[in-house]
Each structure stands twice: as structure tokens, then as C-alpha cells.
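Please predict the structure of the following assembly.
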Amino acid sequence: MTDDTETAGSPVLPSTRRSIPIALIRAREKVMGPIREMLSDCGITEQQWRILRVLEEYGPQDASTLAERACLLLPSQTRIVQTLLEKGLVTRQADDKDRRKQTVAITAAGQAIIDDKLQDAKAIAARIEEVIGKEKLAQLLDILEDFQKL
Amino acid sequence: MTDDTETAGSPVLPSTRRSIPIALIRAREKVMGPIREMLSDCGITEQQWRILRVLEEYGPQDASTLAERACLLLPSQTRIVQTLLEKGLVTRQADDKDRRKQTVAITAAGQAIIDDKLQDAKAIAARIEEVIGKEKLAQLLDILEDFQKL
DNA sequence: GTGCAATATTTGTTATGTTAAATATATCAG
DNA sequence: CTGATATATTTAACATAACAAATATTGCAC
């Protein structure tokens, strides 16, 4: 099927298959399918998982930095961190130097959840690599990183 | 900064910068920033815009097909289409052959909104192309399409 | 110290994601 | 033709998140 089949009256923008934001979300939905399944097993949402992953990678950090890295708005993050606190998966405490800042950190229980899902996550990553190819995947990640320059 | 700076105790998964789902969402957030700004001007949400874009590209189509293309669950889409109906941007009518199916189509008013935003959208696309590069952008879109095979 | 900016949280509203159930139509075996 | 099943979509209900505005606290310049 070419881009001209099945079109409406007069498309004035690039095909949605060649639209960056739509192509990104379509790819992401495909990737997230098995991951959401994995997470629903342990009662963790996508955003909660993202916070845990960022905390694991970068260590304890203030709320603003965490929100930037986890792609969350601060008010949303505050509520998500609260539920993670109740679950005992993270801690939150005021910074000693600047008491406006709240430092969030992952707990052993939080780390345990990541460790538990490690095999699943690796299997999902392997499946993706199998379909897309190692080389293209590396290219993709390189290009995606470039978007941070926007 | 290397991947080893600022790490927590023992990261067991790839850096979030090399994690496909997180890299996809980070890139998408960067791209969507100016687009959300553009859309807020005309009181259209991201999902509403996606529906209009897909309807413009593929023409009138049944709800299931539309949902698949716009990356929306049917119940969410039903509500979004209802608000688009109230705004007069789309129409919905039962299919003649199979009256279970609902055919959704964009109206002239809906098309007008797309046309209105055309210049803005082109400027945003041009900015992305300027930063990422035409060639890499084409590569990116090719690779993202491959994810549909997952 | 006063005023202003910065950091987070809190609150309220709206929109969406998600699951299950309900509705309407179509298909098909008998 | 009837009843059972399958398909397409909507509705309902709840949880989550986006977003905007208000509040509280701290840090900093003057």
C-alpha cells in the first residue's frame, strides 16, 4: 500500500507513519505491551517503574531532577512518590544543605522489585533485539539521544 | 559524563538512556513540547489531534481501525470522539453494510483546524530536521516502523 | 530584615487509561 | 425461523495522570 491509497480529501501534513510524534508513540505502545504485562504482576504502574529505574541508575536525587529524568510533571510525581512511600519502595527526606529540596531514594524493597523483574526485562529486550536487530537498535538509541538537544 | 558517574548501588538494567521505552518517551516529550503549546492555542488535546490527523490521512473509517491507528483504547476513543462531535470536528454514523460498525469522519471544521496549524507544524518539523538531520530522521522513521512487527 | 526567586507540595479540575459489563447487530447451526 | 454465539461499540466505574493555580518553605540579593 502506498501513501496515496485510502487517503482523505487533501492531507496537508506528512503521513502519520512518517510523523515523528506519532511514529514514536506507535513504537512505544508496541514496546510497552509486554512491559505493562510484566509490571501488572507486581502492582507497579509504568510511571512508578520509571521512577524506580531512574533512582536505581542515578542514586538519590532531588524531586526536580528526578521528574526531569523520569519525564513526569512535579505534581504528578509527588503523588506517585507518595504511593511508592506507602509501599515502602522509596524514601524521601529534606536535603541538609537546602531544606527546600526533597531527596528521594530507592529502598532495598524497591531494588528487590527491580531485581525480581530483571529476567523478564532481559527477555523482553532480547525479543526486541531479535526483531529489530542489534545494529539498528544502537542507531535508534543514538538518534533518540540527539532529541535531548531540542 | 560517562554511564558510571552518579550511579546508585548496583544497577542491573541498561542505563535508562539506553533503555528503549525510556529513550522513546524522553524523545517524545521533547518533540511534544512545542506541539502541545501549538494545540493548547486551539483547545485541542494531544489525543484529539491524533484522531484528526489519522482521519485526515486515511479518510472515514470504523472505530476499531481508528483506535488502532491513533494508539487509543476503544473506550477512551469513544469519549474523545464524543467531545470532537460536540465541537463539530468529526461525524459518526453507522455503516450501511454492517450496522454494528460506526464510521468516523473528519468535518470541514476539523480539516480547517489542521490547515490552521499547518504552518506551525511545519516549523516544528523543520526545527527537528535541523537538529537531528534529514538522513538520521529518515533512518529513525524506518526503524520505528519496524517496531510494528513486534 | 525585606522582598523576590526557587523548590516542592497541595489542591482542584479535567482527561485519559483500564477493566468489566451492557448493548446492538451479525452470523450460523439446527 | 429460532437460538446460540461472535463481533463492534458503547457505557460505567475506578484509578491514574495531566495541567493549572494556590500555598508553604527556603535561599539569596539588596
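Residues 45, 47, 72-73, 75-76, 79-80, 83, 94, 98-101 of chain B lie near DNA strand C (CB under 10 Å from a C1'). The longest strand of chain B covers residues 90-94.
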